[in-house]
From TrEMBL:
Spans through the membrane: 6-26, 47-63, 83-101, 106-123, 129-153
DUF1468 domain sequence ranges: 6-153
A Pfam family per the record: TctB
Protein name per the record: Membrane protein
InterPro entries recorded: DUF1468
Keyword terms: Membrane, Transmembrane, Transmembrane helix
Organism of derivation: Marinibacterium profundimaris
Amino acid sequence: MALDRWIALIILGIALAYGYAAFFTMDQSLPPFMQRNPIWPSTFPKVLAVLAIVTSLVILLGLEKPDEEPKTADIDYRRLTDYHLGQALLLLGLMVAYALLLRPAGFLLATGGFITLGAFFLGERKFHILLPVAALVSGLVWYLVEGVLGIYLSPLPAFL
């Protein structure tokens, strides 16, 4: 079985467990006045579970690929050095550093640095475009989480 089908099988298992939790366990503790609402707190998880199950079944059954497409080779684990393994490991390390620096460095600095360094590791060298985009995206996400959703995120480093 191809790698994409193995991943789809794993996602299907996770989506089935998530769907079971969304359909059968989340609504048990709702107060009576919320049980007559058209949209419950479990509505989005239910939709997400159904979409994940349908998508993973489409991939698992091979319905997304046209028949005339030539057969592509799977990832050969014996030739891992032929792939961009260094970039993948750098990005994984960068994700860990982002998670560890999120509180001490603040959301704006940590997120901007993550976007900038991640793009640099992937080969982007136009810093005159990259830095403003990283700053804009970091600020926009911070505003949406802080201002719109009302979830507090420290925008600046802890010592400020």
